[in-house]
Amino acid sequence: MCRAALELLVLVTLGCRSSAGDASCPEPQRAFQGSCFEFVAHHRSFVGAQAWCEESGGHLAFIPDENTQYFLQEHLDPQRDMWIGVARAASLNVQDSATAEGPLSWLDDSHITFSNWASSPEPGAACGHILKHSGFQWAATGDCDRKLSFMCQFESRRAIVCAGQTIALQCASGQVLVIDGGFYGRKNVHYCQSTTSTATTSSQQCGWVNVVESLTAHCQGRQVCHIAEAGKSFGEPCPPLGNYLSVDYHCEEGFTMTMNTSAAVFTDVTIIIKWLLTPSRGKPLCRLSTGDGHFLHVDSPVGLESRLIHRYTHPSTCVVAVDCTSGDMHVTSQKIITIMEPVTDIRVTRCYAGTQTFHATDCRALYGRAFQMQMAVKTGLNISYRIQSEETVFLGFFVVKGNVSHNISVTPEMVKQLGPGCHQLTISASNMVTFPEVSTELQVCILEQVAGLQASVLTDDCLHSSDIAVDVSLEQGAPALLLFSLTGDNSISFYETRDMNARKAIFHISHPIQGMEDQ
């Protein structure tokens, strides 16, 4: 690589013809996939057409894929031959012939992976064009001195500056230049071809010098940067073929505004503004609208951050906007923030199983059957609920209004997953501004349907005994509620309920009624 001092002539203006990014292209250019294309009716040789494009920092158009082909066809004249950026690959080695045959490629030496040739290129063909009356197919020719129309391509992220030329790198309003790469010298034989320089001795080789540091110092952070190739001040990295300047760049926003997209009422919201754009006329003046009727003036020194703290007092969705002016420049940025109340006081009020209603302290459900839980929170919107048993989460759901009671269904499959018995469920609720989440515990007893109920009296003399022993067994359904009905000789009945928590148990029934018999 050659070592040479680099000097750039940099001018800052508020207008030029090139634009970085996918924004609109100046007339009569047309935008497609991040590049601007211009269809030129003038007739030039292949080298002359390429030179015409290079005057504005572009090159003859590349057609890398079918989509680009279709786009160009919409703007091409089927009655015209038009040069495109196809040529024979050539070596930078001055000992090789500049016209030595190689495969056809795009001017940047990239391979032709998509093609639309009318016929296979003949040996000796050195450049390519769109063939008229062919349905926009391509043709290759050995006569590159033919005078044809042509189309130029101006890439949004790269510019080529030939000797004696000046181009402008420009970003859209409110954006700044960021230099990604750059060199001066030559890496490609087809760009900025000199009509006067010739190979002299084998000791004269082509090279290039990295100029990223110099480009960054002069253009980084500006909206517009004019670059003039300054001749001898660049040195001579490639004496045999001449030199050019290549710049890779992109555009970023002129200032950034960073903030959370959601926050809780009465909490500090930090808004960070960093000004990146180098103003052309004085220090930028910025005003911030918080979206809830408050306005703040922002001191934004270039390259530094300004931090503002604001508290919102009511739930709402606010548009936060920064408006900055500097001379003729006017840039804005907007963010949306949602202000919410955090979730508080989650509660379960009751459960429903079939036609039965249970208080939350006595929630029951049948195994294999769905049941519902009614719940709400005291405050909060956009609530995410989560129901889990130990470490297993088996239900999650979302509601908009948290302070309205919602009946949440637990499916039969989920009930089976829990299984028979009493289970401690954890119900959690949160939204984007609730940290940590709130939760409550709920016990749900899953009961099997009663089946195989059998009972036998163990007491021999029930009529004269004040204590009657009854042996009860269940095939399934425990725990269950048993109802004992006892009737005496005097037709007086007695009823007693007992909880049965196992599949087999002995119950002792005592009552002073004489002549009582078990029912």
UniProtKB/TrEMBL annotation:
Keywords noted in UniProt: Lectin, Repeat, Signal
Cited CDD domains: CLECT
GO MF: carbohydrate binding
Coiled-coil ranges per UniProt: none
PROSITE patterns the UniProt entry points to: C_TYPE_LECTIN_2, SUEL_LECTIN
Domain of life from the UniProt record: Eukaryota
All residue ranges annotated as the C-type lectin domain in the record: 32-153
Signal peptide: 1-23
SUPFAM superfamilies linked: C-type lectin-like
Domain SUEL-type lectin: 161-252
PANTHER family: PROTEIN EVA-1
Protein's recorded name: Uncharacterized protein
Taxonomy of the source species: Eukaryota, Metazoa, Chordata, Craniata, Vertebrata
